[in-house]
Each structure stands twice: as C-alpha cells, then as structure tokens.
Amino acid sequence: MTGRWLRAGVVVLAVTLVGGGCTIQPDSRPRDIPADQRGQLDAPGAQPGQATGAGRVFLVATADEGETVLRSVLRNASQGEPLIAALLDGPNDDELDDGLASALPAQLSLNSARLVAGTMIVDVSEDILELNSIELRLAIAQLVFTASEIDGVRSVRVRVDGAAQEWPDGRGELRAESLTVFDYPGIAESAQPPFPPVPSDLTI
Question: Which of 28, 68, 69, 156 is the most exposed place for a label (fewest CB within 10 A)?
Fold first, then answer.
C-alpha cells in the first residue's frame, strides 16, 4: 500500500513540474523584441508620396473626355481652417505628376475660415480677384466643395479681406448669396464607382 501511494506521489510531482515548466512567466522588466518578430506588430502604412488623411480637398483635373472637373484627394486636415489651408497649399508632387492642378492663385492667403449657423465663411486675400472668369468659377467651386466636406457646413460664403463679393456659379452667373455644391452641378467627379452593366440576356 505504501509503495502504491509513493508511486502516485511521484507521478503527481512529475506532472506538476512539467506543467510549471510550460507556464509562460511574465517579464520582470522591459525587453527588446527581436527584429524578425516585429513585422506582425507594424501597422500598415501609406505608400511613399501617397496622400493620406481623413479630410478631402478638391483639385482640378482633366476627365477622360477632356472635360475639366474637380477631383477629391485626401489630406490630413479634416476640419475648419486647416482643411481650407490645405487646399490653398495646392497639389503635392505626386498629384502634379498625375495632372492635378489648382485654379486658386499660388500666392493666395487665407485670412480666416469660420462656421456660423451652418455657413462656412472663408475670407481670402485679394489675389483671387486676378483670375479670369473661367479660372474664378473653378477656384470658387474648389472652395465650396472643400468647405462642404467639413462637418456642419451647409453653405459657403467667400469674402475678400472681409468684404462681400459676387461669385460665379456653375453656369457662370454671378451670385451674392451663399453657395452650395448644388450650384455647381456636374463639375466634380463622383467618388462612387459606376454601377455594373445590367445583363441583356436576363430571362424571367
């Protein structure tokens, strides 16, 4: 009887030692992770030169049909004055290589951009008045579409050094009131991919 209990005790002790050896013990102090084990911890990043961010600004592009349109690109800024300032910075090098441009003057400066009761009031320098009618229509559309990306914005009013101005809408007609994206129909590319064609051989 004594021998049987002794053998059972040895087995229990062996299992305990093996189990204890397999337990993962917490580190008592920080340690470096080997380089070959770091890959799975790295978050996926953007490709070099690729624009990233949560906000969108609208630049000038040429569509496949040769028509001048607005195309949205990503920017890190997403709210208020920083997003408008990002628009005034113009396209980056990769966007320039892709044929994107801006109708806004390179020397144009932003005085302020503030949201008042759903209207984003964008105040810029007088350099914008040097544009011809075609450039001005695109430039104002860029400001309207970009500002409309900001949460809470329902309309946009552009001022020059604090003074109200009349601006061309999508048809080139001068407007003194606040503008919306609906005043420029068809000028911006849709971010939604085209619907797949409906099969012609469907049978009911």
Answer: 28
